[in-house]
């Protein structure tokens, strides 16, 4: 499989992206297209001389003369910078020269590039960014987590159809339980948006279990949690922050009771596993569902491991031909209601 | 101080409410009015015979012939059941026979009763339910957490003014940092509602520090986090759920590595402190800001300790005369912009 990587995007790019590409090439048979300013990328790859036989790895540099920074206006930057690493990545997929593209840079710009070059799947109103959230049994898919901050009920319906399909195909969950994020379980609880979306989701050909509350996401009550991108983004970042804070608090408390320090060597194994469980770099990236082609968007603060996992997430998504499945499901729903 | 307690409301009422009243009466000089069906409450109090000298405690039963269940329609129930424990509680405050009322029952009905009998403070558009959320340094106030699911920008502005005042007076934080919950720090990030609210909050006479993200709430970046009641409710419940899930995961991980069990006796002290830190029953209840008089709304699943703390939260709020402060601040803002 050929994966195009926006090597210039991300808080720690190009160090993190080049490292991620090397990890991915070493651990898989995928071909990685490192897209960015050639001179910089060659220099970065040279740093690995002696450690790895870089030349033998399945990595190819694709030159792009510009790049988009984290604080640029997404749509404007994509329109103006036709030769940015992101735009080149998206075109590689649109032209069939890559199977997927991955970016851990400006996420708004990555979405814009996907929309601009890959186009929306016919019938899809808005693409949704869906990500995994750790829960008691493993993970839950949350969509949307930031692509659409103001939503119509119909968007939430489609997020439900798309994310359910993604959860079934890529995460391998049979008949995934889809819940609508709200403020109470009863169908009468919610705001204007969710009350209207509830009625639509009930009629969709998915396993809709009704409203779920904030606690049900980590609690394992649903496999897919649907919400607008504003709420999804708050949920995602609160989850990250709370996990960090809890670990800090544990450390702080342990310091206040010196006697507990004696137990630390024994705790090491448990803490290592727990970290892994709640470590977002393990999941790598979030697919943008609803575009023709695969686009994976990762956390700006991704390290090499996270970039590698985003590349693998891209390959996994390609394997299951999600776009075709979404096209079919949306068409089926639209035909049913017309 | 005289606190009226809705003794019939709550998942474990009247056992939890009567226990909470006994705890509060024992630990303070407040007079507790136990409002509810007299026969039931007398029976409940009798259970404490032998353990406590109930008669010597400053507790008085106030009879109410009806009560409102958790699943009744809030406004309708309050309008129809004039002699419900909740309505009687609210009237006791309105008539000056109690200084505050506390309920851990149907929270929508408690708000309706407060609005119906206590009335809104002049100039206040919507009252806000504000609660404390544990963070790395202690706590952060979040408002609104469920009173208003669909908001106008002006509501969020007033939530900021009211919650800032509450944080300053009751929590004792000087010049509290007020943040608007959004999806990025930049003022250009947000949805339609927050973008408009940002402009208003900037002009208010509070220490507005701009947008904050989900992670900043537990991270300790703000003393007051402002959002609509839908988001606030999701934040609150996600926080509860995630904390529970983390503790469960720790236990699960420890079980998988039997060697770590040896360390458990040492960990006990740290875990006890940590639990207390994140235990919502420590804070008891959330004040409904913006009504004439004090109304404290607690968690439906409150136990006796949580009810006691809700009673104390009511007394604390009365002491600082929050309603007068809010009246003045809202008037001042309205005069400035007119």
From TrEMBL, chains A, B:
Functional pathway: Lipid metabolism; phospholipid metabolism
Major site of localization recorded for this protein: cytoplasm
Highest taxon of source: Bacteria
Catalysed reactions, as listed in the record: a fatty acyl-[ACP] + phosphate = an acyl phosphate + holo-[ACP]
Keyword terms of this UniProt record: Acyltransferase, Cytoplasm, Lipid biosynthesis, Lipid metabolism, Phospholipid biosynthesis, Phospholipid metabolism, Transferase
GO-annotated biological processes: fatty acid biosynthetic process; phospholipid biosynthetic process
One Gene Ontology term of the molecular function aspect: phosphate:acyl-[acyl carrier protein] acyltransferase activity
Keyword Transferase recorded: yes
Cellular component GO terms, alphabetical: cytoplasm
Subcellular locations according to the entry: Cytoplasm
Keyword Lipid biosynthesis annotated: yes
InterPro entries per the UniProt record, alphabetical: FA_synthesis (IPR003664), Phospholipid_synth_PlsX-like (IPR012281)
Coiled coil regions, renumbered to chain: none
EC number: 2.3.1.274
Quaternary structure note: Homodimer. Probably interacts with PlsY.
Function as written in the Swiss-Prot or TrEMBL entry: Catalyzes the reversible formation of acyl-phosphate (acyl-PO(4)) from acyl-[acyl-carrier-protein] (acyl-ACP). This enzyme utilizes acyl-ACP as fatty acyl donor, but not acyl-CoA.
Family in the record: Belongs to the PlsX family.
Listed name of the protein: Phosphate acyltransferase
